[in-house]
């Protein structure tokens, strides 16, 4: 494992997302809101995402949002020296996100965390990234 690998951390919940950069393994995380500057959040005033049924309007909007995030991940990878990707999202959103990633981006995924952490602190995310990387290596 290259200790100087640059990791893109994708945190999403189907409505909102954050992209963070980790310049070395287990180094500090840095929010990179500029990487999502023109991606609109999905606003749903209805039921929470875990209550909806597949095929309804909310599900289609959530999938479209996560498809946009996956496209943005591809762009960030192609314009930056990203070596690894870690995905953090609730199980349903994580599945949609994994499906939407390009094969090149999917090959860079080195771990995931199936929890809703879009509002988490940097310290909490650093702990989750470390655990995701460790569980992937085990």
Task: Write the topology of this structure.
Blueprint: E1 7-12, E2 17-22, E3 29-31, H1 57-79, E4 84-88, H2 91-100, H3 103-107, E5 109-113, H4 122-137
Helix pairs in contact: 1-2
InterPro entries: Host_attachment_protein
Protein name: Host cell attachment protein
Pfam family, one: Host_attach
Question: Can you describe what's shown?
Answer:
This protein has a single domain (7-137), classed as Nucleotidyltransferase, domain 5. 39% of the residues lie in helices and 18% in strands. The chain contains 4 helices and 5 strands. A 5-stranded mixed sheet has the order 3-2-1-4-5, with helices on both faces. β1 (7-12) and β2 (17-22) form a beta hairpin. It starts with 6 loop residues before the first strand and ends with a helix. The model is unreliable at 49-54 (pLDDT under 50).
- Kindly report the spatial arrangement of strands forming the biggest sheet: 3-2-1-4-5
Structural class: alpha/beta
Radius of gyration: 14 Å
Q: How many strand units? A: 5
Topology pattern, helix = H, strand = E: EEEHEHHEH
Number of discrete helical segments = 4
Low-confidence stretches: 49-54
CATH architecture grouping: 2-Layer Sandwich
From the N-terminal CA to the C-terminal CA, the straight-line distance is: 13 Å
What's the story with the biggest beta sheet?
Answer: 5 strands, mixed
Shape annotation: globular
The count of domains is: 1
**CATH homologous superfamily (4th level) name:** eRF1 domain 2
The overall average pLDDT, rounded, is 89
User: What name does the CATH topology carry?
Assistant: Nucleotidyltransferase, domain 5
Relative helix content? 25-40%
- Output the CATH class name: Alpha Beta
